[in-house]
Amino acid sequence: MQSSTACLKNGGEKMADKRYYWLKLKEDFFQDEAIEWLEEQENGKEYCLFYLKLCLKSLKDDGKLIRTVGNLLIPYSTEKLAEATRTKADTVMVAMQVLQRIGLVEILDDGAIKMLKLQDMVGSESTAAARMRKMRDGKKRNDVTPMLQKPCNNVAKTVTAEIRDKSIENRDKSIEIRESNLIVIWEQNISPITPVIAEELERLKKDYGLPIVLEAIKVACKRGKRNIAYVGGVARNMFTEGWSEEKQQKPKQEYKNPFDAAFGGESSGNDNKE
After folding, report:
1. Sign of the C-alpha dihedral, residues 126, 130, 131, 132?
2. What three-state secondary structure class fits 124?
3. How far is CA 177 from CA 92, 171, 191, 207, in A?
4. pLDDT category, 137, cuts 50, 70, 90?
5. Which among 122, 140, 159 is the end of a domain?
6. Are residues 14 and 118 in the same domain?
7. CA–CA gap between residue 218 and residue 270 (Å, rounded)
8. Which of 41-50, 153-162, 260-269 has the highest mean pLDDT?
9. Residue-by-residue DSSP string for 150-175
10. Could you tell me if residue 135 is inside a domain?
């Protein structure tokens, strides 16, 4: 599992929230036509393992592999790839040629290695969501023991405490469902999710709140501006103008995006005034 770099607040205080990424393999991964063919080749098992190592290494960089040295972007050499994946250099050389031929890997113009099918294999979770999940799991385990130890005359208190804990659990679960819905809504209305977009959505949610981000996505879809920069601009404007869910029942206000003018957006409506 890989984690994104933690940010620092003003004054050097470390922010608690990170995002972790992992590789998701479908149960029929090894029945995929390309993977099946790859394993059939001489040394095919090694090529397949090398491919999975490249996927893992590129998780948090949106499926791209390139070395960053200061301000320089340096493509991986065969020797560096062998070192990074603990694979023999001659195996790396042949594997890269084969992976390109079957459409799993592409070498971009800047020399970066692009993992072409990684988008469908990425899982991610913030530390806040992981912490909430662990708390719920611990609470479920701890709920069993007190019920067995309490005498019969305390049954009413036990039931009350259990109902209260269940209410808290349902509330936490509702929050998590809404957070996961943000990813679902993005994929259904904008584009497939990537680690970079997931991280930016997480930042927008922390800065402006989940309801504003969801509403900003609706506004972006309505205007045909389906990109993360536009959604961020709408969310910022809504936050500045004090938008809230309670105001949704009132006549809706059109939120202007600072990018509209640059992209030839809607006019202010004063063009015809003399």
Report:
1. positive
2. strand
3. 42, 10, 20, 19
4. low
5. 122
6. yes
7. 26
8. 41-50
9. S-GGGHHHHHHHHHHHHHHHHHHHHH
10. no
Residue 172 lies in a domain: no
**At 271, is the pLDDT very low, low, confident or very high (cuts 50, 70, 90)?**
very low
Q: Residue 127: which residues within 8 A CB-CB, separation 6 or more?
A: 16, 17, 18, 19, 20
DSSP 33-80: HHHHHHHHSTTHHHHHHHHHHHHHHTGGGTTEE-EEETTEEEPPPHHH
Lookup: tokens for 199? 């991280």
Residue type, 113: I
| DSSP element (H, E) containing 206 | helix 195-208
Residue 62 belongs to a domain? yes
Is residue 173 pLDDT above 90, yes or no? Answer: no
pLDDT tens for each residue of 211-238? 899 989 989 998 988 899 899 999 999 8
pLDDT in tens, 94-113: 999 999 999 999 999 999 99
Residues 6+ apart with CB under 8 A from 88: 46, 82
Question: Does some domain include residue 33?
Answer: yes
Task: Indicate the range of 11-25, 112-126, 219-233, 254-268 predicted with least confidence.
Answer: 254-268
d(CA 14, CA 272): 52
φ, ψ (nearest 5 deg) of residue 121? -120, 10
Across the range 82-88, mean pLDDT stands at 94
Place of tokens 């994104």: 4
106 DSSP β-pair partners: 114
Domain count, the chain: 2
Average pLDDT over residues 12-37: 74
Does residue 93 share a domain with residue 193?
no
CA distance 181 to 117: 23
CB 127 within 8 A of CB 18: yes
Does residue 213 contact residue 244 with C-beta atoms inside 8 Å? Answer: no
